[in-house]
Fold each of these.
Amino acid sequence: MKLRRKILLAIILLVFIPVILMGAVSYYSFSKAMENKSSNFYWISLQESDRKLKFALNEITTLSNSAITQPVIQQILKQPNFVVNYENKQVINNQINHPMINSFGLYSNDRLLYQYNESMSFNELKIQSWYGAMKAAEGRPIWVGPGENGSAAAGRPVLIQARLIKDYDSLEDIGALIIYVKPDILDQVFWEAAMLKQGDILLVNKQGNIVFDKSGNHIGEQTQFPFLADGYSNGKGYYVDKYLNEKSLITYLPSQNKGWYLVAITPHKLITSESINIRNIAIILVLFSLISAFLFDRYFVRRMVRSIISAVNGMKRVKQGIFVPITTNVQTEDETDLLIDGFNRMSTQINELIQQVQVEQARKKEVELQALVAQINPHFIYNSLESINSMAVLQGNKNISKMVISLGKLLRISISENQELIPLNMEMEHVRHYLDIQKFRFEDKFSYQIEIPDSLKYFVTQKLIVQPIVENALYHAIEPMEGNGFISIVAKENGRDILIDVSDNGPGFDQTTLLNLWSKERGNLKKYRENGVGLKNVHERLSIQFGGYYGILICSSPGFGSTIRIRIPKILP
C-alpha cells in the first residue's frame, strides 16, 4: 500500500473509530433505556390487567360461593336419587344468575342432577384434564381457560369455573358445580390493557398453553417461554427473544390466579424506532468526518507525499544503476528537504561502493583461475595411480592393484568431493578402503566388520568423521597388541538420531591417558594428530555442524578395549 493511502487510512481510522464508537454506544444505551422504559410500562399495565382479571373472576366466585351453601342445593345433593322439579330449577337458576354465565351443571357424586343451557355428562366430566385439579382443590374454585379446556379449538370458547361442593355440616364431598363463563369477561379485561400497536397480551398457563390472548388469534397454541420452566428464579421481568419468528420484547408477570402468567409481547422494531434519530446523526457525523479526511489529504498530505514520491523515483533509478541527484523546484524548508539531501548523499556513496565492488570482483576472478590451476595436482595424482594400477595388472600383482584402487577411491572421497555432507554409505565406503589399505601394512594382524542397515544408507553426514576414529584405534589399540586385533563399526537407529559405534579389542586406556589425548597441547602427539583430524577434531566439527547435542562419547577401561560412539542427526539429502 502506498504511503499516501496509508496516511489517509490512518486519518480515517483515527476519526472514524471515535465517531462510530460514540454513535454505537449512544444507540445501544438509548435502546437499552427504551427497553427498560417499555418493560416498566408493560409491567404496570400487566399488574392493572391482573387486578381487573381478579376482580372479574371474583364476581363469579362470590356468586358460586353463595349458591353452593344454599339449603336447596345442599338438600338436593344429600338425597340420593333426588329428582329436580320445576321449583328447584327456578331456585337454582336464580342463585346462579350472572350476565357472563353462559351455562352451568350441577353434579352429585355419581350423576348429573341439573344443567342449564348445556353441560357435559358425568362420565365426560371425569375424563377432563382438569378433573383431578378440581378434586385436589378441596372445594376451592379452579379456573380453566378457553385454551386449556378445548372449547377454543371447538369454535365455542368458554371460561370454566369448577369446584367441589361439600356438606355444610360434615364437610364431606357431596357434588360438584361447573360454571361456563362467556369469554367476554376476559375480552373486557384485556381490551382495556395499555399497549403499543402491533403488540399482544397473552394469558399463559404453567404448561405453556395460551389460555387467552388479546388478539384472539393464538388461543390454545403451545409456547416455550423460559420463565415457565421449573426452578426459574425470576418471578417477573423481561427479556428480548423471538416470538412467532419476530424479535420481540417479552414482559411477564405471574397472575394472582395460581398457574397463570400474564405476558406482553411487543415487536422490538417498535421500541427501537425512537433510536433511529441517534443512528442517523451518527451516520451523518461519519460522512462529515470522511469528507474532512479527504479534504485534509487533498491540501496537506498530497504536498508532503509528493516529495517522498520524488525520493522513491530516485531509488527506482538507483535500482536500474542510474545515479542522478534529485532536484526540487519548490523549497518547503521542512523535513522533506532533509530527506532529498540525504538521498543525494546516499546515492553518491553507493556509486563509490559499486566501483569498489567491481575492483574486488576482478581480483576474485583472478584467484578462481589460480584455484583451477591448483586442481591439476590432484588430477595428476589420480592419473598416476591409474597408470600404476595398469602396470600392476599387466605384471599380475593383484595385491598392488587392489591397494592402488582403494587408495584412488580414498583420495577421491577425501580430496575431490566438494560438498561437506555425504551419504552415510559413502562415508563407510571411505572407511572400508582405508582399512583395506591398512591390512596390506598390518597383514593378518587385525580383522574388521562394518554393519550399516539399508534404512540408514542414504542419510547424509559430515565426511571424514569415522575414518579418524578408526585410525586412532589402529595406532593406539591394534598396533601395540601381540595378538590379533578386531575393529567393529556398527551404525544403528536411535529415534531421530544415528549412533555409530567404533569398537576394538585393544588394551584400552585409563582416564589420564584419555585426558592427554584430549589436551590442546599437540607436541607429544603423532603426526596424524597434528593435522587436526583426531578425536577432539571430530567432536568439535560435529558440534559446530549439528549443535552441542551431537559429537562423540568415549568408553574405555584398561584390559577391556575401547568403544567410541558417534551421534549424528538423521538428515535426508
Amino acid sequence: MQAPTALETPETDFNTAAHPERATLLRAYRLMQTSAAMAQLYEENKAVTAKYVHATARGHEAIQLAAAFQLRETDYCALYYRDDAFMLGLGITPFELMLQLMAKRDDPFSGGRTYYSHPSLRRPGVPVIPHQSSATGMQAIPATGMAHGLRYLEGQGLLQAAEQQPVVLCSIGDGAMTEGEVAEALQMAVLHQLPVVYLVQDNEWGISATGREMRAMDAYEFAAGFKGLHRLQCDGADFVDSYATMYAAVQHARRSRGPVLVHAKCPLLGHHTSGVRREWYRGNDLTQHQQNDPLPRLHQQLLTEGFSEGELGYATAQAQTAVQEDYARALAAPNPDPATFADHEFAPAAVTEEAGERSPAGADKAIMVDAALHAVDDILREFPEALFYGQDVGGELGGVFREAALLAKKYGDARVFNTPIQEAYIVGSTAGMSAVGAKPIVEIQFADYIWPALNQLVEELSKSCYLSNGKFPVQSLIRVPIGAYGGGGPYHSGSVESTLLTIRGIKVVYPSNAADMKGLMRAAFLDPNPVVMLEHKGLYWSKVPGTEDAKTVEPAAGYVVPLGKANVVQQASAEKLQQGDTCVVITYGMGVYWAKTASKQLPGQVEILDLRTLNPLDWEAVQAATLRHGKVLVLTEEPLMNSFAESLAGRIQRHCFQRLDAPVFTLGAANLPAIALNVELEKQMLPNADKVHAALAELLAY
C-alpha cells in the first residue's frame, strides 16, 4: 500500500466519540478549578503578579486540558503564552508556574529570564517542550521542524523502540494564523506528511482587534487550501467534545504520520494580558463570552455523569488551597543571583583545538567549493542524524554553485532535499530539528535572500540557549554564499555580516581558503550552537585574479579548526618590524586577497590577520597584532558606515590607544544601498587591491 501523498487526506477510523473515564473527568475538573483559582489570585494580587506581564488560560481551559491529556513522554509540544492550563494538564505544578510568573531563580523553564507561560522543559514523564518565542505565529515553523526531524529519524531507524510514533503538538491562537510563516509551516507539513497537530484556539480576539477585522476566514476554512491536512473542529469550551476531538487528532497524527489541524472555538474570559485589561475595550462582548464559561459547563456535565456536589466541592477546595499555598511559597522563593546574568549565551563548544591533518602528504589542491562539498559529504557519511536541505541543493543540480553536487543521489532524498522558496522555514525548522536530535545543515541561496529568515534566526534560534537556561541550544549550520564579483547585481552580491553580528547568540564564520573552509565547516557542524557560515562566491573557484591562494591542499577527513581563532596568513619581516616600519591588515574573506595583492608593493611591511570567525572574535589575536605593529587597517567588503569593521576599529582604539602610532584606518565599500549590476560601477563601489595599497601607503607614512 502506498503512503498518502500530499494531495490526499488519509481516511481514518479513529473513535471520534472517545469519552473520558471518570478519573479523567475528575482530574480535568480539579485542574480547571486550579487554573481558574490561579487567574483569580493573579487578579486579586495584581500589584504583585503584574510586575511582569502575563496571560492566563481563563476560558481556554477545556481544550487545553483535553489536548494535554493525549500526550506521552516521548511527544513534543510547542505551547503558546496563554497555555498555563495546558501545562497543568502535563503535570507542571502551580508553584512552578508562579516561579516563572515572578521571575524567580528556581523557575524550571528559564531561571527567571522569560515571561510567564513561556516553557522550555526536559523532564521524565512529561513531553519535551523546547524553547520558543512569544508564539504569535513564529512557533509553527520550529514545531513543524520537530515533526520533520522526527519523521527523518524514524525513517533512518534512529529512534529507540520506546520512542516510536511520537507526535508534535503546536498550540497557536487563531489571530496568529494570518502570519506568513504559518503558511510556510503548513505547506511543509502536507508536502512531507509530518506527524504534527496544530491546535488553533480561536477566541475571536487579537489584542483589541476582532476576528472580523483581522481575517477573511477562520483557521478551519484557511486550512482547507492545504491538501493533505486533516481538519477537525470542536467546541473548545466543552471538555468532553474537546477530549474526543483531540483524541482523534493525536491518534491520526500518531498512526497515519500525517498533519492535523484542530480549530477550537473558545471564550476569552480574562484580559488579553495583564498589561492590556479587558475593561479597556471589551464592552458587552465579555458578557457574551462569560455565558460560555467551560467551568460551569463541566460542572453540570459531571453531575450528569453521577458525580456528587460533595465530590466536586472537595475537588474545588483542594485546588484553591493548593493555589494559595503555592503562591505563598513562590512569593518567598529566592530571586536569581545577579552574577549568573551572562550564563548560557552559548553551549560549550565541541571543538576547542585544531585537530587532524591540514596538509596531508600527497594530497591534491582543492578549490573552496569542493572543500565545502567534501566536508558535507564527510559529515553525512559519519553522522546518520545529519541532513542537508535548502533551495535547489537536492536532486540533479546540487546547488546553484554545485556545492552539493550528487549528494542527493548518494544519500537519498530524505537526507538531501530541496525546499520551497521559504527562507524562514529553512532557518527556523532547524530549531525544531535540533530539539529532537536531528543535526541540520541548511543553505540560504544568496546572502541577499536571508532577510525573510531573520525573524526565525533572531527569535527562535539565537535566544533559545540563553532563555532556556542552557537546556535547548540549537545545533544549526546555516550556509550562506555571500559577496560581490563579476556583475552579480543588487540581489546576488550583498554582504550582510554586520547585520548578523548584531544578533547575540549566533556564531558567524567566514573562511577565506579551502583548508579553512573544510576545517571550519566541520567545527561549525559539531558546535551545539547556531552557526552561520558565510562563503564568498568569488573565492569558490579561485578564478578572480589574485585569489589563487584560496585553493589549498585539501585537509584530511576529520580536520577541524576551532571557531574563534584567527590566523596570521602573512607575516611582516623581522627587519621591517624592528625598524618600526610595519602595519597589520585585519580582515576576512576577499579582503585577505586584496591585502595580499596590495602588500606586494610594500615588501616585508604588511602582516595580514585573517579573522576566520567574526563571532566569537579572536580579540587576543587582534590585540597582539595591534601591539606588534602600532598601525592597523581594518578591511571589509561591506559598506563602511556603521559596519562591523568600524566597530572593531573603535574597540581597538579604545583598548590599544597608548600603543598606536596612527589612528586605526578602515576601508570598505561605498555607503550605498546595493551593488550595481554594471561591472564598472561594481568596481567603483567595492574595495580593491589599488585602494588597499593607497590606504596602506598612507598608514605606513603616518
Amino acid sequence: MWSPPGRGRSRSALAFRAALPCLLLSALESAPAAAQSLTPDLFNPSRGGFVSPDALPMRRTAAVLQAPSDAIPQPPQPPDPNDDPRKKTDAPATTRVGQVPTYGLPAANGASGSGYDSLNRKRQQPKLYPGQPKPKKPAGPGSPVPPATPPVSTLGPPRIAPPPSETANKTPLPPAMAGTVPGQPLRRRLKVDDDAFGAVGDYAGSFLIKGGLELSTGYDTNPARLSKPVGSPVFVVAPDLLVTSDWERHALVADLRGSFSGYTNNMPATIDGLPSPSPVEINRPDFTGHVDGRYDVDRDLKLTSQLRLRLATDNPGSPNVQAGLQKYPVYATYGGTFGFDQTFNRFQVAAGATIDRTAYTDSKLTDGSTFSNDDRDFNQYGGVGRFSYELKPGLKPFVEIEGDNRVHDQAADRNGYLRDSNGGYAKVGSSFEFSRILTGEVSVGYSARNYVDPRLSQLSGFLTSGSLIWNASGLTTVKFNTDTQIAETTIPGSSGVLVHTYAAEVDHDFRRWLTAIGKFTYGTYDYQGQNRNDKTYSLEGNLIYKLNRNIWIKGTLRHDILDSNQPGSSSQGTVVMLGVRLQN
C-alpha cells in the first residue's frame, strides 16, 4: 500500500535507533549472554540461584557431609573433546550387601534422653547424689488418673479461703533448713505438738525430764471444814517431776507430784467448851508418786513392775480425825506390783502380785502428850489378774479379778475390834477408742470384804470405775472419771468406808494461751455398820493464762460442801487462789 513520503522516513529512523545500542553491546562483549540472579543484596549479584549458598536457611553445617542431591545446581559444562566414552573400560559396580544406607543423619539421632529410640537402646540413668530421693516414673498406660482436686478432709469443715498467714510475706529459709539441697538426707518428721505452750523438757542421756513448780496464795473461808467456819489465808507449794525413757524396747516412767498447804491462822482448840474436832495447826502435805517399768522379753511377753508411794493426812471433816489434836498425823502407803503381760494373738493375759504397807505417825495432842496410831498400821498382800480380748481395733472387753489380805500390826484396835480382813472385787468392762474422739475405759462390778471380828459385818457394795475423754472439738475437751474404794476407819462398830467418787471436767481454749477449766465432783462415804452417810460436792473453776512455755498464771475459785446425816458434821467452804507455774 502506498504511504506518504514523510511517514516512511520516520519509521526507518525509529528502527535504526533501536538497532544501534544492540550493535554496540555485541561489539564490547564476546562471552555468551546469561540472566542476572536475584539476591538479598541487589548490588552484589551472584549466579546459580535466587539465594546464595551461604544465605540458605536449611544449609548443612560443616560437621555433616552434603549429599549430592543437596548440592546447588550448576550450569551445564560443554563436553570435553578428549573424553571419548568409547575408549573407557567397563568397571564393576560397588556392592551394597550388609551395608546400612545413611541419609545424612544416623538412626535415632533425635531421640535424646526422652524421645522414641528406633534402635531400642538402653537409656542411661541419671546420676543421683547420696541421699537424694529417686524421681518418680512418669505415668504410663494403665496408671490411674490423678485427682483433679485434693481430697476433702473429714476432720473439719471445708476451707472456704486460705488463712492470711499462707499468703503473708515470710522470711525466706536457707535451702539447708528448707530441705531443698540436692542430695540432702530427708529430715525425720517431727511429732505433732498438741500443746503449743506445754513444757519441752530436757534430755539426760536417753531420758526426757520435765519439771514444774506451782506457787499459789489465797484465802480459804473454812479450811478445817467446821460447822462454824473459821477462815485463814493459805499458800500452796506444789512441785512435780516427770521422767520418761526414750528406748526402742523396754520402758521406764517416773511420775512424782506433791504439794504442801500452809495456813497462817490456827484453829480454836475448843468449841463450846469441848475439844475441837479439828487440829489447831491444819497444815497438810500431799504426795503421790509411782515408777513404772516394763521389760520386753519378746514381742508377746513383757515383764511389768510398779513402785508407788502415797503420803497424806485424813481429810478435814472426816470422823477418823481425833478430837484435841495439835496437828494432823501423816500416813504413808507404799508398795509395789510385779507381774507379766502375755499376748496370744488377740487374747491378752495380765497378772501381778501386790504388796503394800500403810503406816501412821503418832498423834500430837493439844496438852503436849502423844497418842500412838500403831493399831492403824497394816500390811496388804494380794494379786490381780485381767483377761481381755480385742474384738476389733479400738474395742477391747476385759474381765478383772482381785483378791487381798490385810494384816494389822496390832490384832485389836483402840476400841477392841479385830480389824484383820480379806476381800477383793470382780468387774467387767471395756477399753475403747473411736476415731480419737472418744477414748477411755469403763467397768462395773462388785466388791466385798470380810473381817475376823464377828461384830463387824461384811463390807460390800456396787463398784464403778472408768475414765473417759471426749474431744468435742479442737478447742474443747470433756473428761469423766469415777472410782470406788474400800477404806479403813476407827469408828467403833463400823466395818469400813465404801467410797464412790464421780468427777466431770470441761476444758476450753479461748486461745491457745488462754484456757478455762470447769470441774464438778460428787462423792459418797458410806460408813457401814453405823448408818452414817456423807455426801461431798465440789464446784471448781480455773483460768490459765500462758505467757510462754515456761511461765503460766493461774486463778482458782472452788466451793466445797460436806452434807452429812449426822448432826453438826455438815460444812461449807470457799477457796480463792492466784498463783504462777514455772516449768521446763
Amino acid sequence: MLLNAVDAALARDMAHAMIDGFNRHYRLFRTESARAKHRFETCDWRGQQRAQRERIEFYDLRVRECQRRLEREFKAGDQPMAVWQQAKLNYIGLLVQHKQPELAETFFNSVTTKILHRSYFHNDFIFVRPAISTEYLETDDPGAKPTFRSFYPSIDALHATMAEVLKSYDLRCRFDDIERDAQRVADALRSELGTDRQRPNFQVQVLSNLFYRNKGAYLVGKLINGFREVPFALPLLHRDPGVVYVDAALFGEEDMLLLFSFSRAYFMVDMEIPSGYVQFLRSLMPRKPRAEIYNALGLAKQGKNLFYRDLLWHLRHSTDAFRIAPGIKGMVMLVFDLPSFPYVFKVIKDWFPPPKDTTREQVRAKYQLVKRHDRVGRMADTMEFSLLAFPRSRFDDALIAELEQHAASQLEVSDRDGDGQTEVILGHAYIERRMVPLNLYLQEAFDAGPDDAAANAQLEHVVIEYGNAIKDLVAANIFPGDMLWKNFGVTRHGKVVFYDYDEIEYLTDCNFRQVPAPRNEEDEMSGEVWYSVAKNDVFPETFGPFLLGNPRVREAFMRHHADLLEPGFWQSTKERIQRGEVLDFFPYGAHRRFEFNGGVKGAGELVDPAAAQAETPADRADTSTPTTAEPSE
C-alpha cells in the first residue's frame, strides 16, 4: 500500500527515532561494560557488583524512553498499520550497515509491542525472523579492535607468545610475574595437546577484550593445531591491589560451559559487534544455545528473543505434549515441561495453602531479586514472559485441568487471533533450564540399594554438592528459606543448583538462634514449640529432621556439612558480610589452579576433586585481603 507524502515522512521519522533510541541504549550499555576494566584495575569490587546489577535495568529504561518519544512526537499508537509497516521497512534500511542489527531488531520489537499492545509476537509489524544477516560482520574503523586476534607461535616458543597475548590487553596494573604465568599457560597448553605434532595451521586466537565478572577478568580464546581446536580461558586475579596473576587454565567445552553457566552472573565485556563474540564463543561451546550466550554477555532481551524463536521452531518440528513436570508439586508454582525441550515453564498459582504466607507480587519480587543478585553458580537464571501462546493440541488434558484449578487467572484457551487454531495463552510465566530434581536424583540412589558402589558415590557427591550450594548461597547473602531437597536440581555437570525462590531472604535480614533449653519436663515432651519465634528467626538445629531422615544421607551430610545445623556457622557468615567482606567463589575446580599443581593435565591425581568440592567459601577466600575470584554480593 502506497502512503501519501505526509505518512511516508512520518514513517521515516518514526524509524529514525527508533534507531536513535536503540543507539543510545547500546552506547550506554557498552560504556558501562567498558568501565569494568577500570574497576578491575582499581579493585573496585563493590562498584563492579553495583554496575552488574544496574546494567540489567538499562534496556527497559531505554525502551520506555523511546516509547514515550514516539507517542509524544508522532502519536504512534494512533497511526494506521500501513504507517507501521513502512516504518519497519525504513528501519531495516537503517540496519544495513549497522554493527548490532540483531539487537536493534529486538529493540524495535520491544518498543512496538508496548505501543501497539500486541498479544502475539508473530505479526507484520515486528521482526519474527532476522531481516539483516550478522555473518562476517566486522568493524570498518581502522583504529578499532577486531573481534578476535590471531597469534602464530611455534610450539616450542609458546611461552613467548602467551606473554605477548597477556600484555596485549593493556591492563593498568602490573603482573606479579608475567614470565612465570606465560610459562605455566604454555606448559598447560602443550599438556592439552599431548603427543600431537605441530601442524601447518598452528595459531592462538583470542577475543580482543577481557570478560569481567566480580573480582575476575577472563581471557578467552582457542589454540588451533591443524584440524584440532582447544578452547581455553585464563582467569586473571589480583594477588595484591594492582598486582595481577593468571590463576588457572581452563580447557575444553565442559570448562567453558561452567564458566558461562546459566547459574552465574552476567559478564561485562566491551563489544562493538556482539554477534562476532557470540559466533566465536559458539565455536568453543557448540552445544550451548546462542540465546544463553547472549544472556551470559548481559544481552538478556536478545537472549529471550532467540529463545522464543528456538521454542517456536522446536514446536514446529516436534509432536510431544506439554505435561505436568515430574517431581513433588510445589505450593506456589505450577511447573510443566515438554519432554523433548530442555526447559521448564513455571506459573504462579492463584492461591497458596498454609503455611505459605505470600502474594503473587512478593513472589515476582523474589524472582527479580535473583535476576539482579550474583547467582554464584547456585541459582538458576530465569526468563520472564507475558502472553505466551501455544497450540492447544500440544497440551496434555491433565495439565489443562491443573492450570484451570490452580492458575485460572493466568489461563486463556481461545482462538484470540482468529486463525482457526485454538491456543493456550498464559498471562505470565517463568522459563528456566530443566534439571533433575534433587529428591528424584537421590531416590535413584536409594532404589539401587546400599550395596551399589556407583549409587553410593552418586549419593555422596550430591549430598556434598547440596551442602556446598547452601554455603555458597549463604556467603552470597542469600538464605534459601525452604531447603528441602525438592527445591534443588542437579545439572548435567553434577552441580546442585537452587531454583525455588519464593522464600528466599537476605541472610543479613535473618536472626539465627539456638533452640532454648526446655524449661521443664512438660516442655521436653511437648510436640509444640515452647519458645517465642519472631518473623525472621531461624533455628538451624531444626533442619535435621526435615532433611536427614534417610540414614545414608544423614551419615554423608554429617561428615561434610554438620556445621549447617549449628547457629554459629550462620551467625559468623552474617557478621562477615555485615563487616563489608566480599567473599569469593570460583567457577572452576581447585585442581585447575596453578598454585595447586601447575595447571597440568592429570591434576586430579594431585588434588582430590572431592576435597576441592568440599571447600567452603570461607576456606576458599582470603578474608584478610579480598583479592581472589568471583565474590558474592
